[in-house]
Specification:
Helix content is 44%, strand content 19%. The protein has eleven helices and ten strands. The longest helix is centred in the C-terminal third of the chain and has 22 residues. Helix 2 links the parallel strand 1 and strand 2. Strands 1, 2, 3, 4, 5, 6, 7, 8, 9 and 10 form a ten-stranded mixed sheet that branches.
């Protein structure tokens, strides 16, 4: 039933595009609702692919939320395995879920990993009127009574956003992770709304999806989970500077269907490298708090394999999986 409904949805999108006279040579699937990190990846990279004349027509962005990216992943593997005109937004959240076997038996080797062209530092924020002024305040509140603090995040329970506060708490000597409350939502935009509205006490996400809310003053960032302060956001202290030895950077990149040719895969890697090297992309990174992080082609494919294995081991240590 799920495949039929997805086909019908995308069939409707394609039909609407035909009727309106628009032509899209390339489609980018963002595996979440509009406004989150995967949507950001598709829209920004898609725009530059066209602006830099790397594709012949504007890139169509399709939002396909569900199961922390699992609906899109299953759809690509099952229905679009040979489509060389399809790219899909991915991040550390994607490989985390795959490492935890959270995509209904899907594995990381069922697609091809094109590359990552930006590192999105993790960040923990609270509403502007929150009583928690520092990361230490938040950690101490959880240690005193875990039921008093609920985190919202843009990944499913056990996913990459969920792991971030658990890693901070582990660094603080806290180990009763099952008592830490977390609500997983379909994308960072939905998660940040929960915290601004007072439904959760904190939000765990990435700088690119939260930077606008930080600039507007709707939230306060307690910590950025990078080695050094983020350019343009130097006022946000790192977790390390507050005594928590945690560094979590979410890469932003793409995967493509597994059964495209090596030539087609290498062509996408070259295009993504061109985007990464452009002045336009460097400006986008600066505007959105992204750090340089570029791995493309076979180098990235091998790196993903290593990360999946490491994340699987960490998830077992923390108790997310058995």
């Amino acid at each position: 039933m799920k495949k039929i409904s997805i086909r019908a949805l995308l069939g409707g999108v394609a039909l609407a595009a035909t009727i309106s006279g628009s032509a899209f040579a390339t489609e980018c699937i963002a595996p979440a609702d509009a406004g989150g990190g995967w949507d950001f990846t598709c829209r920004q990279i898609g725009k530059l692919l066209y602006d830099l004349k790397l594709v012949d027509a504007p890139v169509q962005v399709t939002n396909m939320a569900g199961a922390g990216g699992g609906v899109a992943y299953t759809y690509v593997v099952s229905d679009r395995g040979t489509d060389a005109d399809l790219i899909v937004a991915a991040s550390s959240a994607t490989t985390t879920r795959l490492a935890q076997n959270a995509y209904a038996g899907m594995a990381a080797d069922q697609v091809r990993w094109v590359g990552a062209i930006g590192g999105d530092p993790g960040v923990i924020v609270v509403a502007k009127d929150s009583p928690y002024q520092t990361l230490g305040d938040l950690v101490e509140a959880i240690k005193a009574d875990p039921s008093k603090v609920t985190f919202a995040g843009g990944s499913a329970a056990g996913g990459f956003d969920h792991l971030k506060p658990l890693m901070v708490l582990k660094a603080a000597g806290f180990s009763d992770f099952a008592k830490v409350k977390y609500i997983g939502l379909d994308g960072g935009a939905e998660a940040i709304t929960q915290t601004i509205g007072g439904f959760t006490q904190a939000m765990t996400g990435d700088m690119s999806e939260i930077s606008g809310f930080i600039k507007s003053g709707d939230v306060r960032a307690l910590a950025v989970l990078s080695a050094e302060p983020v350019p343009g956001f130097e006022e946000i202290p790192t977790a390390k500077s507050q005594g928590f030895d945690v560094e979590v950077v979410n890469w932003r990149g793409l995967y493509v269907p597994k059964d495209i040719s090596d030539e087609q895969f290498n062509a996408w890697a070259e295009k993504l490298q061109t985007v990464a090297d452009s002045a336009e992309w460097k400006q986008i990174m600066a505007d959105n708090g992204l750090a340089p992080f570029t791995k493309v082609g076979t180098e990235f494919q091998g790196w993903v394999d290593e990360v999946v294995a490491e994340t699987n081991a960490l998830s077992k240590e923390i108790g997310i999986i058995q």
